[in-house]
Amino acid sequence: MAHKMIRALVADDSSPVRALVNQGIRIHQEKRYFEIENSEDGQKAIDALRKKPFDLAFIDINMPGLTGSQVVAAMSETQSKGCLSIAISSQMDGGHEKVLKDFGAYHFLQKPFSKQDVADIVSAYMTMTEVYPVMIVDDSATMRKLTRKTLDGSRFQFDVDEAGSAEEARRKLRRGDFRIVITDFHMPDIDGLELAGMIRELSSKVAIYMMSTNDTTYLERSAAFIGINGFLKKPFNSSDIDSLMHKLLGLEDPKFGKVRDLFSFLERDKKAS
């Protein structure tokens, strides 16, 4: 399958740091084609982001002109509003951290870092932009639509199919190659736990996540016992999906992303111990 070019911006007033980030990005040049643009101050970084869409941006927090936080805050008004932004600095105070988190920055690289640290983030981006086939199972068309919208807002890419019942889901699973199933618990005839058991009989490789308004310890423990990968209490959002996908794919939790347990009873057990 042909992959699109990855366009990266490196913004830092230090020439050696820009060179190091460039080297880290180019570790993957045998797998993907990269177009890299370098900026030595915040204003030039903003100008670049306005001219064309970037996929990745490594932005120093403390730059002349505009700070990295100001650049990230203004990114939503540029052609690069969907860009994965990584803040870099020797230190980060609470003010910068709040702005970066509020405006959707992804991760933080603390100086000094290595080119491999940069390469690891680029590798995570490439993993996130692979397409993952997912099936939403819910007898409510409204909930299927809402779940699809939540998936669309994730940093990850999905090829979404839907099933209005457990039986329809089972038929599609036998015909299709799904990586993930997100199923409601409360469904007529066959509930989500029973469906999960059927899926496990077909495949141990499909990741299963259960949705429910009820997150009782009993229900979650039953889900974990059957082999369900995680639990999503309704309502949930795109950051919950991102957190689950990072765990599923073995990616490091990002500095500014939501971190959550796969099951809420694990958090309750930690507090009780």
Automatic annotation (TrEMBL):
Residues 7-126, 133-249 form the Response regulatory domain. The modification 4-aspartylphosphate is found at D60, D184. The keyword Transferase does not apply. The keyword Disulfide bond does not apply. It comes from the Bacteria. Pfam families: Response_reg (PF00072). Keywords: Phosphoprotein, Transcription, Transcription regulation. PANTHER family: RESPONSE REGULATORY DOMAIN-CONTAINING PROTEIN, STRESS RESPONSE REGULATOR PROTEIN 1. This is Response regulator. The lineage of its organism: Bacteria, Pseudomonadati, Pseudomonadota, Alphaproteobacteria, Hyphomicrobiales.
